[in-house]
Design goal:
- It is a single chain.
- The chain is α/β, with parallel strands linked by helices.
- It has two domains: about 210 residues, Rossmann fold, CATH 3.40.50; about 110 residues, 3-Layer(aba) Sandwich (Rossmann fold).
- It has eleven helices and 14 strands.
- It is elongated and about 90 Å long.
- The chain binds D-glutamic acid.
- The site of D-glutamic acid has 12 residues, from loops.
Length: about 350
Amino acid sequence: MLYPQPARWCKALLACAMLLSSYAGAAEKLAHVTILATGGTIAGSGATSTTTVGYTAATVGVNQLIAAVPELAKVADVKGEQVFQIASENMSNEHWLKLAQRVNTLLAQPDVDGIVITHGTDTLEETAYFLDLTVKSRKPVVLVGAMRPGTALSADGPINLYNAVLLAASQEAVGKGVLVAMNDQIHAARDVTKTNTSTPDSFKTPELGMLGYIQGNKPYFYHVPARKHTADTEFDVSKLSALPQVDIVYGYANVGPVALNALVAAGAKGIVHAGVGDGSLATPVKAALVAARKQGVLIVRSSRVGQGIVARNGEANDDELDFVASDTLNPQKARILLMLALTKTTDSKQIQRMFATY
Ligand code: DGL
């Protein structure tokens, strides 16, 4: 039969209409995810396909990143914004304030369901924690990077970006705090850290554990963050244009107070001491910290070790010295919490409470 009977025409047209409406319906149902691009290796390029070190970070724009992963359209309605284009070793307090303010503005919009932030991996854990303490929403915010540039063989950026968008579009990620999606894994902003200079499995949460996996186009959570974050935060950066100056001094054998005294003289409002062991203080440094405290500088004892609790009144009498212990926060994250704490108070007992809360 050359031409189908009219009745069959109607059935075919009806089938097409139902198919189109299902696609339209599915498109309507896709979550709206905004990708905020800041630079880094995920936006990097190298001279050859085997250049996995010695490439240039922050060369590819957000629209190119999105175009390189057409599968994104299946999991979310994606929009891109280029907020910065920097290698993340150059991330600054001013960048963080601008980013947090943009994230909060977008998440307050009913037509934004989640946010992905593409970022260099060098300070990704810091930006993630800063946002974990300043985002005023339960909507997903997911940070993602890459350990290899997009020009490299087996580049990890495209699949990391796909997983991050899928996670940000998911209901499962709602209310879980700021997340880091790398290497098919889901990590909490507070506890994740970069553990290798160059391998794709660099991001780990060594002892406290990652939250879950992204596998087969689905996120799987096995844990939830135990500390306060995002919508429960007491910090508000919406009207800030600067943050108090807080610096880190490193502990090691034969250390002296020169670096510490220089930072205090330069006007630091807070010092994080990355001590050896359980936050131990070498005698000359302890004396300089006590002097700094007497000048009103807030002192937090952290540890260079990377895992474990820095116990209050353990290696130093914090009650007597009026120091704060960093709990399990590594020095770079302790700096972030101390900076934000100093936007609210200089009371060391209140600040110690904050280190037990977030
Ligand atoms: N310059 C580093 C950065 O932008 C490259 C590392 C990376 O992004 O993976 O963080």
